[in-house]
């Protein structure tokens, strides 16, 4: 279950006012190297994005009703430290400034709860598609109203280093 931190608690995160999703590392997440497989992080990012979208008023049911969704165009991930079996993970996500017509970008930061170490960072770019055809389409009004970067994220993002 996700949550939003008080504005004063953002100092430990890359950007202010993150949406947070909690993850418990399970044995199915572990690969032959005895740490979380890199593909699992994409699943975590996807889950956090869906949770955040629902919290913004765009749950999957609404997207299906609108025949609109967001499809991944590009992902950039920096893996910094391994996540291990039994770790409790916090996945933070933020919407970044967008043109509000077709595309949106999200930033992610993955941290281990126990030592607050940043394990990974990612930026994913999405495009709006018509679900029934898979074709790119402009955002419906519901997306334009809800997929908006917070003003403090816009300001902080101007100095954020690329991944």
List keywords for this structure.
163 residues, alpha+beta, six-stranded antiparallel sheet, 32% strand, 4 helices, 6 strands, Thiol Ester Dehydrase, Chain A, 23% helix
Written overview of the protein:
With 163 residues, this protein is of the alpha+beta class. It has a single domain, classed as Thiol Ester Dehydrase, Chain A (Roll), CATH 3.10.129. The protein is 23% helix and 32% strand. The protein is built from four helices and six strands; from the N terminus they run E-E-H-H-E-E-E-E-H-H. The protein has helices spanning 38-55, 60-66, 141-146, 151-157, and strands at residues 3-4, 19-24, 68-79, 88-96, 103-112, 118-130. A six-stranded antiparallel beta sheet has the order 1-2-4-5-6-3, with helices on both faces. The longest helix has 18 residues, at 38-55. It is globular.
Task: Please describe the topology of this protein.
Elements: E1 3-4, E2 19-24, H1 38-55, H2 60-66, E3 68-79, E4 88-96, E5 103-112, E6 118-130, H3 141-146, H4 151-157
């Amino acid at each position: 279950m996700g949550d939003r931190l008080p504005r004063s608690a953002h100092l430990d995160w890359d950007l202010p006012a993150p949406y947070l999703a909690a993850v418990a590392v399970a044995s199915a997440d572990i690969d032959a190297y005895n740490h979380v497989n890199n593909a699992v992080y994409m699943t975590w990012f996807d889950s956090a994005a869906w949770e955040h979208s629902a919290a913004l008023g765009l749950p999957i049911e609404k997207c299906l009703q609108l025949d609109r969704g967001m499809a991944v165009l590009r992902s950039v991930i920096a893996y910094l430290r391994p996540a291990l079996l039994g770790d409790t993970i916090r996945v933070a996500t933020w919407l970044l400034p967008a043109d509000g017509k077709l595309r949106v970008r999200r930033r992610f930061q993955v941290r281990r709860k126990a030592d607050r170490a940043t394990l990974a960072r990612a930026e994913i770019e999405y495009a709006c598609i018509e679900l029934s055809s898979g074709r790119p389409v402009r955002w419906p009004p519901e997306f334009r109203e809800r997929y908006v970067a917070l003003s403090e994220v816009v300001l902080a993002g101007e100095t954020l280093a690329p991944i």
